[in-house]
Amino acid sequence: MKAKILAVDDEPEILALVEAALENEGFDVFTALSVSDFRNLNAEHTFDIYLIDVGLPDGSGFSLVKELRKGSDAGILLLTGRSSETDQVVGLEIGADDYVTKPFRLRELAARVNAVYRRSAVQTDASPAQPDRVEPPEFSGIDFTFDGYKLSMSGRRLWGPDGAEIVLTTAEFDLLAALLKRRGQVLDRDQLMNAMKGRDWESYDRAIDGLVSRLRRKIPAINRATHYVRTVHGVGYSFNG
Questions:
Q1: What is the rounded distance in angstroms from the CA atom of residue 120 to the CA atom of residue 29?
Q2: pLDDT at position 4, please?
Q3: How far is C-alpha 127 from the chain's CA centre?
Q4: Whole-model pTM?
């Protein structure tokens, strides 16, 4: 069965190009011109990837990302203006996995979509919806533990001390994994960005700061006053746990 993509943009010409390019990649593409169209389609279908323009005529693309992240771990890519550093940082902070700047090349868009889909598909396949809880001590495939938290690299899953799974976006998981692989070492933003799948983040290293803030909210420290992800001012971040 083909993976489904829902793309929303207020420019029909862009949507037509996006639809043709991604269908050529083997995706089943649905398109919307507005927030209301997007919501209607999303209520009728289950999508694997969302492609969302930040500026829409009847609402904000950011609001759609927030809505989706309340109940979905599907891949989300934002379409942003080339000079909109704020859009890119905010988008990653609220749960987008990646972004593409306008004007974009269709080959680049297809590559970004495929990369996000591969990563999100691995996480979805390894994360059955039925049980919220597992028995962490007996669960196989655990690669990292800290204060009762358990992380599986192959399954791309994280469990809290109570056994409940903590849902992370692709970018959040990649950042946490990069820090855990070099636990205790101080990594600057460039090192973290390179470790996160070789993603070309251009000059937007503030996106790392946003991802760190999200991780801190999702994995609160147990029996300690400081965060697991520690800020080393003027240098970068380290994982201590």
A1: 17
A2: 96
A3: 16
A4: 0.63
